[in-house]
Amino acid sequence: MGDPILREAAPEMSIEELRSPETQRLIDDLIETRRAAGGAGLAATQIGELKRIAVVEVDEHTRYAYKPLVPLTVIVNPVIEPLSDEQLLINEGCLSVPDLRGDVRRHLRIHVRYFDRNGDEGEQVVEGLTAGTFQHETDHLDGVLFLDRVTDPRSFSTWEQFDRHGQEEFLRRVAPYTRDAA
After folding, report:
1. How would residue 56 be classed by pLDDT, with cut points 50, 70 and 90?
2. Is domain 4-177 classified as CATH 1.25.40.340?
3. Strand arrangement of the beta sheet that strand 109-115 belongs to
C-alpha cells in the first residue's frame, strides 16, 4: 500500500502484447508469487507492472482454507457483469495491505469474460467467495483497493484479531459458500 501504481487503472492489452515472451514471463512470475504468498489471487499492478493481467487460484496451500478450490485461472482484460443485485458481505484481506482485513460487499453471482494467457477467450459464471476473489483482483486492475470498498471502518482488524473475534461469525455467515459446502 502506498505504491502509486496500485491506484492506476491498467490499460487493456493487445493479443500480440499478451503473447510476447516478456508478458508470458510476467504471468509465470504472478503465478509463482501468488503461490509463495498463499493468496487467492494476484494482479500485475501488485508486483509493479501496469498490465491488465491477474491470476486467481485457490489450492490447499492458500491462506484462505475456507475458500472453495479454484483451478489456476489467468485473466487478461477481464470484464465482470453482475448477474443479480444480491450481494455477500465478505471479510477480505490483501497481499498489498499486509495484516489488515475489512468487510466488503461483493456481488454474489457474476459473469466474467477474459482472455487466457494464450489469448483465447474465456468466460465463466462464479458465485460466493469465488466471485468476491474475481471482483477483488479486477478492482486491482482498476486502481481500487479493498480498503476503498469497506462498508464500515469499524470492521477493520488485523489477522490475529479477526481470528480471535470475527472469524467464527464470518464463517457461519458465509458457510454456504465455503470449501466445506462445495
Report:
1. very high
2. no
3. 41-43, 53-58, 70-82, 109-115, 121-127
Domain ranges within the chain, ordered by starting residue: 4-177
pLDDT of residue 78: 98
Catalytic residue among 121, 137, 160, 169: 137
Q: Is 137 an annotated catalytic residue?
A: yes
- pLDDT of 62 reads 85
55 with 96: CB under 8 angstroms?
A: no
Residues 6+ apart with CB under 8 A from 130: 58, 67, 68, 70, 177
Are the beta carbons of 49 and 26 closer than 8 angstroms?
A: yes
- Which phi and psi angles does 137 have, rounded to 5°? -70, -35
pLDDT at 117: 97
Are 150 and 104 a contacting pair, CB within 8 Å? Answer: yes
Q: Is residue 41 within 8 Å of residue 70, measured between CB atoms?
A: no
How confident is residue 145, by pLDDT bands cut at 50, 70 and 90? very high
